[in-house]
Design a protein that fits this description.
Blueprint (H helix, E strand, L loop, with lengths): L5 E3 L2 E3 L6 E5 L6 H18 L2 E5 L18 H15 L3 E4 L3 H8 L4 E4 L7 H14 L2 E5 L10 H9 L5 E5 L2 E2 L5 E2 L4 H6 L5 E4 L5 E2 L6 E2 L4 H10 L4 E7 L13 E2 L3 H19 L1
Parallel strand pairs: 3-4, 3-14, 4-5, 5-6, 6-7, 7-8, 8-11, 11-14, 14-15
Antiparallel strand pairs: 1-2, 9-10, 12-13
Helix pairs in contact: 1-2, 3-4, 4-5, 7-8
């Protein structure tokens, strides 16, 4: 199977490359949290020689309830994320929710992430692709829960026609309407066949949609992550928090920060095996 390698800051994501890890808390709750988590992840990156991008959302706009915590917003959130890169050297990523956010976000982010519910919004996809092209960033399109993996090709074509081939796709489960997301690991090679590296979102895959707030089961994160890496994904997305039960967003499916090193070590070993199988 032939698909492209995508540059992400100092890293490369794609076939025969080390795993790309995208890790961080769901949302920017406050700068103290971001400083703590990004600092610990930077140490882990150095100790394990990882390809690691720090993730935290400046705005969780796709919330079920009007009362849900959303974050500090675009301007303040980008300032906080810029300081993460200044302090730690880690590239950063966040969700983009509107075309007008793409240009300012691309000045800070090395990956512009398009949320799953918005991946069919043409103006958003094109704006992100153009802004990312101008600033040397990549676009990460999360496969919608209601779209077949082969049909994400349309989002890829929009990015390519906007002049940016540096596109990654993310598998994060499919919704069948009974309160649980189902992961079909065949989605990984299917989306790679579209010419893009594939990231596996292990934490959003264990969400249990429904009710005023989304539930989840973080105990299943390592199981799905290991299966996806064995299945050939090129990167893993993990939301991590020092105390997930007190997180202001998506706590039930976030991994405890102290559990991240062990899981990362397992996934790196599985990646080495997967690359042997491909060789």
């Amino acid at each position: 199977m032939s698909y492209r390698t995508v540059p992400v800051g100092p890293y490369r994501c794609g076939p025969l490359e080390p795993l790309l890890f995208i890790i961080g808390p769901c949302v920017i709750e406050n700068e103290e949290l971001i400083t703590r988590v990004s600092g610990e992840l930077a140490e882990l990156k150095q100790k394990r020689n990882l390809q690691l991008v720090f993730k935290a959302s400046y705005d969780k706009a796709n919330r079920t309830s009007i009362d849900s915590f959303r974050g500090p917003g675009l301007e303040k959130g980008l300032e906080i994320l810029a300081r993460v890169t200044e302090r730690t050297g880690l590239p950063v990523t966040s969700d983009i929710h509107g075309p007008e956010q793409a240009a300012p976000a691309a000045r800070v982010l090395k990956i512009l992430q398009i949320p799953a519910f918005l991946a069919r919004q043409t103006d958003l996809v094109i704006a992100c692709a153009e802004a990312a092209r101008e600033h040397g960033a990549a676009v990460n399109v999360k496969k919608p829960q209601f779209v077949a993996p082969e049909d994400v090709v349309h989002a890829v074509k929009k990015c390519e026609q906007a002049g940016n081939p540096n596109v990654m796709l993310t598998e994060r489960g499919t919704m069948f309407g009974y309160g649980r997301l189902i992961n079909d690991m065949q989605s990984i090679p299917v989306m790679q066949s579209l010419g893009c590296p594939v990231i596996f979102d292990a934490t959003h895959s264990v969400q249990r949609p429904g009710g005023s707030t989304t539930g989840g089961n973080r105990a299943m994160v390592p199981i799905l992550a290991r299966a996806a890496v064995a299945g050939g994904c090129d990167g893993v997305f993990l939301e991590a928090h020092p105390d997930p039960d007190k997180a202001l967003s998506d706590g039930p499916n976030q991994v405890r920060l102290t559990d991240v090193p062990k899981l990362v070590d397992q996934l790196v070993r599985l990646r080495d095996l997967a690359l042997e199988w491909k060789a």
